Amino acid sequence: MYSIGRFSALCNVPIKTLRYYDEIDLLKPSYIDAETNYRYYDYDKLEAVKLILLLKSLHIPLGEMKQIIESAAPVQWKSIIDQKISELEKQKEQITEEIEEMKHLKIKVNSGIPLIQEPSFSDCYYETHDEVLVYTLRKKIPIKFIDTLVQDLFNQVYAYNLEVNGHLRAIFYHRDVKTNEAEVELLIPIKNSNDIGGCRMLVGGKYACIKVKGPYTGLPMGYEILKKWLVEKNLTQNGNMIEIYEKGLVPDSSDPRDLRPDLSINPLDFLTKICVPVT
To answer: Domain locations in the chain?
Structure first.
């Protein structure tokens, strides 16, 4: 018989684990010396350990192993093996997908394409805006809660039975970098005011604009590019800069009841126009 230390080395299982298997009656020693309390194992226990390790590789809980080992029913073994085959097939599919992703990354690297796509910016340009009636909601909030403010706006639009007539817009008046809070005004074009408060006319005229394609994190750079262009063109800013969300989380819909965050759109495909009235 082998001492527990020798047996541990032979089957490559830690002594501590063998003692634990003894405690839970999963693998009992062949003999325990009454005086020294040393554990000893026969050769046949090596086969038992191999079986335990096999079941462990199949992710069978220790509590179920004893019953499986004692029963050793062919039907039960077939079920276990079939389950493991199914798991391995899924892993195989996942690994195949990961390999394909790595191949695409390799192609990007070889072609000099950035692995992480940056937002893209259009050239700055002019356009003429008509005066537009908007329903607004203005509030100082932590920026992370702007989605809640958007939902509040559309809840009010629905409650007042207002007909939406364009893309959602936003003006950021005062932003505290330290607290990441801002005074935000959300504006949604509507066809009529229904004689309620909270409506105003958004001035028309000549606007300087830039379009930003990509996540909203790219908008600050869009602001800087547009401001620099105003200086270069010797233009005077006659109002606040406005963000117009042409494609993004808020879907195009004239019915406020249908307005839900569109999580199917990849942030890389967001399209936001930043514009400002100028002379």
So the answer is: 2-72, 120-277
